[in-house]
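Researcher: Re-running this chain for the archive, since the previous output was lost when a drive failed. Same request as before.
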Amino acid sequence: MEDIERIYYQSLYEVAAALNSSHAAEGVLRSIVERVTKAMEAKGCSLMLLTPDKKRLLHTAAYGLSDWYIRKGPVSADRSISEALEKKAVAVLNATTDDRIQYREQAKKEGIASILSIPMLLRDEVIGVLRVYTAMPRTFTVEDMYFAGAVANLGAIALENARLYEAIQKDYEEFRKDMLEWRSALGHEWTIEKPVVPPEE
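Model: Regenerated structure tokens:
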């Protein structure tokens, strides 16, 4: 138990460090799914975001999963994570038979046994889900859920930081453009002014 707690703490530290050192959400999210997979000794991990209408989930980052599985089809939020949308962790022991899993046959072909779904929360609102996939049947512990939940929330913060940074950059560029136009206008006004002739002595 001490070993897994140490691994989880170290992984959280590394994710937080990546978040603190980068404005690019894509890199941070890729780091998250890789570190979760390795820390939890899982088959893979994916991070999916809700569409604006909150009806579908879109794969945003994944690690350890085949391309065909990621692109298997639209993921319905209602069918896949209805409990997660209620801010609850969802642990599925047998992904090939559980009715809560939308693509059971595909999960079997991919070699997925168990799935843990954790809601991504931003300001108490669910914006997506972090999913952990295992190759062997696994009963996820409270520690597993806390760790995955903490990382999922860091992922939500990474997305928010990227959005804010992009907005700041846009505002700065607009401000810079306005300043250049203002300086240009000032220069133009200066050039059309009549020259000042010093009085004759």
